[in-house]
Amino acid sequence: MRSLGQDIRYALSAWRHNPLPTLAALVALALGIGAATAIFSVVNGVLLRPLPVKDPPRVVRIFESETRRHRDSVSMQDLIDWKRRLPSAFEALGLYRPGLSNMTGTGRAVLVTTLQCDAELFRVLGTSAVRGRNFTPQDDEPGRDQAVMLSWAFWQREFGGQEVVGKTLRLDGKLRVIAGVLPANLNILGHKDIWTPVTFDLADRENMRGYHSYSALGLLRNGVPLAEANAALTQAAADLAAAYPAQNKGVGAFAITLRDWLSGELKTPLLLLLAAVLCVLLIACANVANLLLARASARGREMSVRLAIGASRARLFQQLMTESFLLAFCAAAAGLGIAAAAIIMVRHSPNIRIPRPEDIVLDWRVLLFAVLIAAWTAILFGLLPALRAAGFDIAQALKQSGGKMTESRRQRWLSRSLVVAETAVATLLLIESVLLIKSFAKASGIDPGFEPDHVMTMYASLPPERYGRDSEFGARFAQQVLDRLHSIGGVQNAAFAGDLPFASTLGGGPVVIKGKPSPKNTWDAPFVELTAVTSGFCRALKIPIRKGRDLNRTDDVPSAKAVLVNQAFARQFFRGEDPLGQLLSYTADRTDWHEIVGVIGNTRQQSVEKAVIPQVYVPLYRYVDLWPAVVVRTSGNPLGYAKAIQAKLQQVDPEVPVFLPRSMRQIIAEQLGWRAFNTGLLTVFAAVALVLSSLGVYAVIAYSVTQRTPEIGVRMACGAARENILRMVVKQGMLPAVIGTLMGAAAALGVAKLFSQLLYGVLFTDYAAYLSAIAFLIAVAAAASYFPARRAAAIDPWQALRHE
User: Which terminal residue of the chain has fewer beta carbons within 10 Å of its beta carbon, N or C?
Assistant: First the structure.
């Protein structure tokens, strides 16, 4: 311990006498360790932290799938049948459905998020109320759904943590009794304010079998692997398809682990980002290793003197490795500060949707990662210089003049090998960032089918006890709101819609066209998206009318029969025919026919990357939509109109909560959020790698020129031209860089297939990206080599020889 203390004091003293190189090494390592720790904290929060359920490996998410309809939710009746058919595979099966409700009776209307669930869901999750009780099977019976449970956060926010069990609240006009309070960490199904029971009204259960509107979780029996459970689900789905072909033909079922469901599509991007940031840290380590090799050479005489007077090589090795570890752990301490700031930015970024962002913290796993990464970097950048310094030839070192050793062939080989490695990694990152930038540009440049600029949106939550009974009442509310909105200065157009582009829930159903072959069963009819809108919707978004007319004020009544279809619908169902005047039905009885009066342009409903699907626009007033969206086109910045729009809605009905105000540009930015995050972060990593690798090339060549000053002087004294010296030094700098870029390009091709999961509209073998990245890196390496080479060519041979 005494020798360790001496080594630390000696290292600190050496840093004070040589501050600039030490500071450069600290900054490079701190940035690398901080970035790696920040990315790992996201990986840890999404992929590694324990889930807030009793037995996570046994909990699975269950989906029903049918290729034509692209659905993943389950039918309540199918789940009830699974409970009877799959007792050997599943210990419990629970279902749930998120929603929104209005809480009144507190003096103001409060919009709350809800989760409708059955009593068995608590058994699946293995969780219990921290106050009061869980739901019971009796709560799921018709007419017995008065009980509610509060989330911990909602309980604290609205009731101040006071005793609430047994008290009542009014939800959507109905009096409810608070049965319990949920645990604070129960966040895997999203942050819902109030949980309500499912009502299993099975009087009309077979007709309800075709409606897939719930999500399902299952608890595997002990010892049952996922593959066996999936085989049982597949067989059960086949049996139901045979028993109920009208509703279940072609419908399958499968399960995935809870962890895989929650991580979704984030697993691959996060692991690739972690690999990328470790590559940047590797480059930083290579630069610091080169710096320490140079310092070891400069301290060669010192080390040899210490060896000559009795110091052991092991003791010198210990001292040098202590310096390396001290440097790495100081950088790690600074890196943790950088990581903490980065975590705050990621958690609060509005366009990055991460499940359970509160789990992204500096916990013990992240701290252990930082410690291990610091130790790994210390060994990585410190081992070679320490071995070389501790292995000096005493006699040769003592013969050197000026207190330092000249650069040996072995040291030159080591330095250039490190340059090759860091250039290869920089090339890999640069190629992948170029591909991502091209992909992001492709995704951002796709025509959404409308003009998103100057469009403001928000949602209204209509109390179902008043608006849920009469569509005409909702029609009057909407018309009064629209009249008031048009009175705002700067508002050009306004409309209501059941769904918005890029925020669609893909609600829809089967459609039947009069005069065309009709399927025997309703659910065998083609599935299309249905969007309820008022007149003015197309004008508010500037969706082009391709044929026929737009909806007008005469269609804004519950008896209206006019509908619009998009071009994808017209192309799929009316090849070579005129769709105008054709009749279609989207109701189960096929007696309510609607006339197509116009064909409008295709709009992207889910994301820019998903294909356009057939879509029917129906008058909003034919239905009771309790959460309509308001779409307003303005002449100026749409966000500046948010308060005025909200005020106009609540002038009509003060008990209607208005929520989620966003411009259309914000909605699109949210859709591109992860792609922008991946692209931006990898581009930053590539830029840092490029800077570090070019500095590495420069440092190696500059140091080599310094060491070879006498040799260069001799060459010039013997007649070598300055152009030849310039060419020689540039060539020596360029060779490892060129080798590194070729190795990096080969590595990029090697990982291209895995990386292609992040690309859109760009081939992973886009050779233009490869060639441009290679050419750019070689140009940077040439520039980094040129400046030391020019200094070498300017050496005065007589001064160099006199110095020698």
Answer: N
Residue bearing tokens 């570090």 = 692
The yes-or-no verdict on residue 501 having pLDDT over 70 is yes
Q: Is 104 left (phi over 0), alpha (psi -120 to 50) or beta?
A: beta
Q: Which amino acid is at 730?
A: V
Q: How confident is the model at residue 24 (pLDDT cuts 50, 70, 90)?
A: confident
pLDDT at 777 over 80: yes
DSSP per residue, 464-525:
HHHHSS-HHHHHHHHHHHHHHHTTSTTEEEEEEES--TTS----EEE-EETTS---SSGGGS
C-alpha span between 93 and 215 (Å, rounded): 11
Max Cα-Cα span within the chain: 106
Q: Decide if 45 contacts 359 (C-beta within 8 A).
A: yes
H-type helices in 310-452, by residue range?
Answer: 313-347, 364-390, 394-399, 409-444
What SS3 class is residue 149?
strand
- DSSP code of 20? H
What are 627-659's pLDDT values in tens digits?
Answer: 889 999 999 999 999 999 999 988 888 878 888
Q: Which amino acid is at 623?
A: Y
Residue 459 region by backbone torsions, left for phi larger than 0, else alpha for psi between -120 and 50, else beta: beta
Structure tokens at 256: 């995935």
Mean pLDDT value across the chain: 83
* Closest among 469, 457, 477, 458 to 172, alpha carbons compared: 469
Round to whole Å and give the CA distance between 555 and 586: 18
In this prediction, residue 106 carries a pLDDT of 60
Among candidates 522, 517, 514, 475, which has minimal Cα distance to 496? Answer: 475
Angle, in degrees to the nearest 10, between helices 2-17 and 313-347:
70
Write b or e for each residue in 323-336: b if 16 or more Cβ atoms lie within 10 A of its Cβ, otherwise e: bbbbbbbbbbebbb
Tally the residues of the chain.
Answer: 804
- 83: Cβ–Cβ under 8 A, 6 or more apart, which residues? 90, 93
Please, which residues have CB within 8 angstroms of residue 338's CB and are 6 or more apart in sequence? 30, 31, 34, 35, 37, 38
Q: What is the CA radius of gyration of the chain?
A: 34
- pTM value is 0.78
Report the relative pairing of strands 252-257 and 59-65 from DSSP bridges.
Answer: antiparallel
399 pLDDT higher than 60 = no
- CB within 8 A of 609, min separation 6: which ones? 443, 446, 760
**Which amino acid, one-letter code, is at 85?**
R
d(CA 764, CA 454): 36
A 10 A CB-CB count for 112 gives 21
| 337-389 pLDDT, tens digit each | 999 988 888 887 776 777 788 888 888 899 999 999 989 888 887 777 777 66
pLDDT band at 311 (very low <50, low <70, confident <90, very high): low
Whole-angstrom CA distances from 273 to 179, 680, 685, 695 are 45, 11, 9, 23
SS3 at position 633: strand
